[in-house]
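INFO worker-7 received task bundle
INFO bundle size: 2
INFO processing item 0
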Amino acid sequence: MIKIAIQGEPGSFSHEAATKFATSAGDAARIVPFSLSAEVFAALSRGDVEAAVIPIENSLAGSVTEHFDLMLSHEVTIVRETLLRIRHNLIAISGAQLNQIDRVFSHPVALAQCRRFLAEHPKMESFAFYDTAGSVKQLVELRDRHAGAIASAEAASYYGAEILVAGIEDNPENFTRFFYVTRSADAQPDPAANKMSLAFTVENRVGTLVAALSELAKEGTNLTKIESRPVHGRPWEYVFYVDCQLHAAEDATRAIAALQQHCSMVKELGRYQEAVR
């Protein structure tokens, strides 16, 4: 049985994604929850767990920028990715009625993705909480019939709560992309990999970023994402993160070599199979 670290409580979307990864690989897994993402990466680096599952991007809320920084600062490698459809539900303790709910708790991103439902129920005052599943855990512990939580169906099932209203998210095109990461020393190359993630820095001179991206274009590499993050301790300098599609293993080698001509640092974060909906 492998141990997979996640940030958040059992029943969270990260827990669901970790279970999905394990099931698809035919692995028996024990999900190990941590309060902070930094603790997830520390546990993986120490060897306390064999893998970690982290959300990297939501189709509505955007990137989880902290996780880019943590991947760069630890010797970890992305080996798989998956897309998880995010379905939000109004959850309460058993026996509670919809008209009783006057307080709703959840992660700020989940609350923001359910604005329409909350606007239609002005009696419900929303409160930010550290985790979607954690908000369900809290209301079950308090046994408060006037409190509700916004979280997944898995969270309701895990904590023995009830779904009062299902599918309350504003936009059904709500997906989160998750990475399955391992220690770099343990990563096994995937011969079917058709996508690569990279991090690189360029010198602060006119045209260096354009030159780097032009080299990738010359190699026929299709960029599917680019993200910039500040370099800690070096104001106004940035690390660029890119995802690019691969047609063959040689594409990755050529892309890295092309970037190295113009970049002061290039780090491959992983090669993996692109997730499909």
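INFO item 0 finished
INFO processing item 1
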Amino acid sequence: MLQSQLFSKTSRQVSADEVSINAKLLIQAGFVDKQMAGAYSYLPLGYRVFKKIEQIIREEMNAIGGEEMIMTAMQPKELWEATGRWETDENIMYKCEDKNGPTVGLAWTHEEAVTVIAKRFISSYRDLPRYVYQLQTKFRNEPRAKSGIMRTREFIMKDLYSFHADEADLDKYYEVVKLAYLKIFARCGLEALVVEASGGAFTKNYSHEFQVITEAGEDYTVYCAACKYAQNREVAQGKVGEACPACAQAKLQEAKSSEVGNIFKLGTKFSESLKLYYTAKSGEQKPVIMASYGIGPGRIMGTIVEVHHDDAGMVWPPSVAPYKIHLLALASSETALSKADQAYSKLTAMGIEVLYDDRQESAGIKLKDADLIGLPWRVVVSAKTGDNFEIKARHQPTSQLLSYSELLNKFSVQ
């Protein structure tokens, strides 16, 4: 991609209203645009990151048997009344009067909708288990939309739903999803803790959140650095400074953290409310046992920025970076520009994603913008590099000179 043709541009200043690091850097670098509080547009650079996160999620969900679908955002009032959530969750759901019909709500989650759909296809023990997921837009009347793209009112969410004949089968799959989630976060460059949290109104057992330690977080996690035992502060049994109850090898610590995913055993609340039953081998009618599993790609993206940045800008992990290489032409001579053009054409032909800064800007501006945008590799052509190319990893302080053939070889084997 030629940077001169890129739709967005970097900016030197960001509104003082933005307090979170992810919002400041993403807006300044031209990755997102804030439409209003809690609502952001993903611009071309940001959307490339977002789609890579989505693809990682999709691959791991498919690997554990998930089938992708998509459900409607508009939901009938009657459906939510059947589970009692039209009234109990009225503060979070956006509702509107349809001039051509009944009152509708914009879904902030899809347990009701997926349960009704499942009634068409699940009627026997032979139909179980089943796993379906979607990547779909949610709407939540979030009163605390203040953490950039980490807490918004309109966002895309991956929600997986599983249907089981018994608790044992659910428990087995629940552990499978746990491992899949940890793979997702690791692939995105995040180290997440599996944190025990309240089961809410559905179960006396714990649900599980996936928390990343960061000062930008809005949660507090009590954890053991030795064995990774962790609990949300609200349900923590042990106190900070006490020996870990799981391993007794280290003392419990507490840190601010950001939730990047959650998994939740729903039991039979929705299947009983909406009459999703199956015929067991014995011929008995039983309610289907369910669970839900959520991940917000935008929340992951914001958390990545909070964890991977420095004073100069963002430092994208290679797996989610919008481009792999930022190629900068810092000299205006025909020879230097020809070298940069040749490298861009060849690297692109090799299937390597390159953002080529061909703009008529000073070397200082180009170098500052490269650090701000934060691609994994910077390749510079200038009068100082002569016949060589200066390459530098974004997270490393030093650079090295490579010949043209060495440059191509380095990136052809990565």
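INFO item 1 finished
INFO post-check item 1: The two ends are 20 Å apart (CA to CA).
INFO post-check item 1: DSSP finds eleven helices and 23 strands in the chain.
INFO worker-7 idle
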